[in-house]
Amino acid sequence: MRAVLTDGPERKHLFALGWPMLVGIIAVIGFNVVDTFFIAQLGEIQLAAISYTFPIVTLMASIALGLGAGVSSLVSRSLGRGEKHRTCAYTTDGLSLSLLIVVLFTALGLATIDPVFRMMGAEAETLPLIRDYMSIWYLNMVFVVVPMVGNSVIRATGNARFPAAVMIFAGVVNAILDPLLIFGLWGFPRMELEGAALATLISRMLTFIAAIYLLHYRKQMLVNPFRGVAEVIGNWKSILSLGAVNALNNTVVPLSALLMTAYVSQFGEQSVAAFGIGTRIESLVMIPIIAVAAALSPFAGQNWGAKKQNRIENILTEAKKFTFCWLAFIFVLFAFGLESMIGWFTQNANVSGLAWQYVMLVLPSMIPLAAVLYINTIYSATGRPIVSLRLTVFRVLVVLLPMAWLLMQFFNVTGVFVAIAFANLAGGLLAYFIYQYRFKPAN
Questions:
Q1: Residue 207 CA: distances (Å) to CA of 28, 219, 285, 361
Q2: Domain region containing 194
Q3: Are residues 277 and 393 in the same domain?
Q4: I want to staple 267 with a disulfide (CB 3.0 to 4.6 A). Which of 81, 255, 413, 421 is the partner?
């Protein structure tokens, strides 16, 4: 167990960490698409029922990602400093803390299914379906959150291939089990939504076993979780101080997306459809950029701990080069094929025109948006997630939401699209300024 990212070419490390993350992200997206596809075959009521659960799923994912980022930051920095005992302690205590939080949330969730989903607007027809699904899904949370934290630790050591392989394997298992358990094929009972939840439970259980196996038997990073109350609680506090801020940061963007959808809905269903198409195309373009941002985290943490800040600056330069090349390729591709791509989603001329407008307005702003993601990641990995939160709050709450509301009064839905592009630009400029003038080497 040693820091493997503090030496060697930065470009090589960026590629070695980035491509498995790219594959893993695609696998996760495929996981969700497969679930939605099979559930949609049951009918609109079942699809509506599952849609009500997305905010809860997103909330738990934000908590898991926040905890994972906190533990990953501490583990990667302690690895960079060569502190083996602290590395193992942070790993063990991060997993035990995530387990404790999951148990509390599971108990609370199971006790409040009906009132929570009634408050969200679920009707009497869909509530029993939601109850069937969430009763199993809440039990599944331990196999979602703990492996996500464990895989964050594994990536912090510089191993990105294993978490990606685990995500792919889980996606394949889920895709196989979904039709068997949902529709009752090949002698299995027909369980419908309960079957979808059970398929997720089984596939996630396998990721849990794989993550614990690697951490304990291969990397020997787990120690006695009951070794000393004072040390464990101290580590929990350190993890929470980072994880809570990261979790809050992760919730700002999806919540703002709900408000942006509400803004766009004032201009009719065609505007909402165009906005949905545009954001989906945008999310596809952003997948490699998100993978690069994820790759920066373990690299920045280890090199910060090793007091090699110049290597962080070098890999950020490599990330910027990749971003320019990738988005230049996308711009050329869209110049010839964007209308055809939009045609996969709709044949309505008005919807197509608005979706085309969204993509062409927002596409250039993805360069500064990438800067926000990269610098947010570096600050979180080096133990200062509050800077990342401030950048997100500035881009979303200070610039995006007020500006979108103002511009839509004069330019209708186009004003909303312009506000998104401008907020990305403003956020990128602020992120660059903060990094250039405030990013200091470790003491």
A1: 13, 16, 28, 40
A2: 10-227
A3: yes
A4: 413
